[in-house]
Amino acid sequence: MKSTGLHTGEVAPGVKKVDPIIVADHVSRTFGGLTAVDVEHLEIPRGAITALIGPNGAGKTTFFNLLTGFDTPDTGSWEFNGQSLAGIPAYKVAQRGQVRTFQLTKALSLLTVLENMKLGAKDQSGENLFQSIFPFLWKKKEEEIEAKALELLERFKLLKLKDDFAASLSGGQRKLLEMARALMSDPTLVMLDEPMAGVNPALTESLLEHILNLKKEGMTVLFVEHDMHMVRHIADWVVVMAEGKIIAEGAPDEVMANEAVVDAYLGSHQDTDLGVVTGRIQLPEGEA
Ligand SMILES: Nc1ncnc2c1ncn2[C@@H]1O[C@H](COP(=O)(O)OP(=O)(O)O)[C@@H](O)[C@H]1O
Ligand SMILES: [Mg+2]
């Protein structure tokens, strides 16, 4: 067993982390008779890149929504940076430094790239009173927000598109914009839901670089991804969900050689999405 330095004790679902940024307990969410999420205990290591993988319908997106306050669980509690987040609305979760990316909705596509970025700024909610009493201060703030947006757009190579409608961006450029927008609020934890979906291979490399850079800058990353090549390449830790539960976690190579994980992918869930995934799980010689 290789040591990742991230966990303490034997590797198993729910294993304790040396320095967890998120600790979740008994988080469950049902839709009618379906249990979409049923997480007993999970800790996400700080300062690392953690991949959340699992077959379609495993509950990954629902779990993201719960952790970020966009959905409410039936049971459970969880902490971010040692503070309980249960019942905290999404915009406050983001203010505390935990942000998730969003796919560009139709409405946001009708805004320009720069306008989308400004929407990501941290202090925009609940400051109307402040704005109306001190318009000169707000002006300064607005200039700062714009400067920051332009800087991030440059870094993500989107600057020359700043006045274009978001709708006109390619799939890959949208993903870059989603990531850049998330950084407007100076997050400590960035959660990415399928950052590579619909991205052509030419942009894949640059997206990977951007994610690795988040870690270099001291941020923690938690991402959902189907592309096992990407998971292997950039994840420090992998958590596997199936039917709402955490069925495995550990270092990428070890998790991908784990029989329960392979079973979860090879099981009854034979849709095209999984075909791609299983095709890319490489088992060590003799263990397949
Ligand atoms: N709003 C909802 N209403 C009803 N069922 C839902 C809803 N959201 C998700 N589900 C169901 O919950 C399960 C988990 O979905 P999801 O979290 O999207 O999985 P994943 O992201 O791992 O593919 C699926 O069976 C899905 O159909
Ligand atoms: Mg999903």
From TrEMBL:
GO molecular function annotation: ATP binding; ATP hydrolysis activity
Recorded GO CC terms: plasma membrane
SMART domains, per the entry: AAA
Record keywords: ATP-binding, Nucleotide-binding, Transport
Top-rank taxon, per record: Bacteria
Cross-referenced Pfam families: ABC_tran, BCA_ABC_TP_C
Domain ABC transporter, residue spans: 22-268
InterPro entries attached to this UniProt entry: AAA+_ATPase, ABC_AA/LPS_Transport, ABC_transporter-like_ATP-bd, ABC_transporter-like_CS, BCA_ABC_TP_C, P-loop_NTPase
PANTHER family xrefs: CONSERVED COMPONENT OF ABC TRANSPORTER FOR NATURAL AMINO ACIDS, CONSERVED COMPONENT OF ABC TRANSPORTER FOR NATURAL AMINO ACIDS-RELATED
Protein name in UniProt: HAAT ABC transporter ATP-binding protein
Lineage, uppermost ranks: Bacteria, Bacillati, Actinomycetota, Actinomycetes, Micrococcales
